[in-house]
Amino acid sequence: MATTFETTEVEFDTETGVGYLTLDRPDALNALNSQLRSDILAGLKELEGKNSEADGIALRAVIMEGAGGNFCAGADINEFSDASAGDQSDRSHYETIRNFPAPVIAKISGYCLGGGLETALSCDFRIAHEEAQLGLPEVNLGIIPGAGGVQMISELTSPAVAKEIAMTGEHISGERAGELGIVREVYGNGFDEAVEEFAKTIASKPPLAIQAIKRSAAIASQTGIEEGIEYDRQQFKPLLSTEDHKKGARGFAEDDYEPEFKGR
Ligand code: COA
Predict the structure, then answer these.
(1) Of all residues in the chain, what percent are helix, strand and coil, respectively (each to 5)?
(2) Pocket of ligand 1, candidates 23, 24, 29, 168: which has the most ligand atoms within 8 Å of its Cβ, to mutate?
(3) What is the pTM of this model?
């Protein structure tokens, strides 16, 4: 059953552990106003608590998408001059996605611009429709992407690519974003199914290991490789003593045993 906030909607599949967070301001191409930014946080909080009582499946992965065929056309330009609407470079929903315990997959169709692209870049994975349009148009307004768009594209591709996208402000297609490595995969037909399939694959893995990998990758990009290796060392032994590790090892040894991981 769906939980509805003013501008987002969340659903949770108790069979797979996959959660769905939909940005739901389609008339404004899901532009990020203060209400939507706060409802993204509310939606993530709601999903974080999701747990299927019956078989113990807690939230394992999230698919984030936009209603009405567009991911998000960026910060709500109408709020730029409204001092009461909060800071558009407010980092909280971007940071919350980056630190969210389950991997978040951005399902990108239609426009994915400015803060919308920065939201997608804050996710763990991006899968795009080939006709999606991605870009950082802030330069046309005399400002810069305020939530790390240039940094995150630099990290995924190169500073030269990030500069080109942010300095021209032009849109690139989903297909081009795939060639550049900004999104992991691009689809025309079969887009919906491919995103589902990928989310289910991630959701079927041992959740404690998935969380440790997400944290490790964050340390590698935010702090440095030495700290990251130290973190990996600290995580390795405790994971060896989990029930999920024993199941995984049994799955490796016995052809007819299919492990079902429970996060313990
Ligand atoms: N903020 C607020 N409203 C926005 C918006 C944004 N970033 N992007 C789109 N909208 C609204 C439009 O004002 C319009 O509302 P209206 O129907 O009440 O007039 C509605 O969404 C549809 O947009 P429209 O411009 O009519 O659609 P389009 O297909 O002609 O163009 C875009 C789509 C995305 C190219 C165009 O809307 C655009 O350039 N938006 C701004 C993108 C941007 O600069 N984002 C970064 C901001 S820092």
Answers:
(1) 50, 20, 35
(2) 29
(3) 0.92
